[in-house]
Amino acid sequence: MWVKTPEGAQKQLAQYIQQVDDQVNEELEQDLKDNIALQMKNLQDSLKTQEVVAQEQKDLRIRQIQEALQYANQAQVTKPQIQQTQDVTQDTMFLWERSAGVDD
């Protein structure tokens, strides 16, 4: 399609620029939607993983406390002998388990 006047050429150029602009906007909008959806999925997966790890740590801590209570009952311990439970770290419990030969 050939344009015969400068005004017609200017109008055709403006239409072409608008078409390109619209197409770029649509592509950018879709890219943004895709990126947001991917980020949401990644965050949801990360949250699920963190929830699983937190539950595993909680379960481990409960097993450790139950085992310590069992040993305390067997030894007829009624008062803390070494330190308060809140002072015992996960690392300390891990070392105690390993030194006692306890396996998960």
UniProtKB/TrEMBL annotation:
Domain of life: Bacteria
Listed name of the protein: Regulator of length of O-antigen component of lipopolysaccharide chains
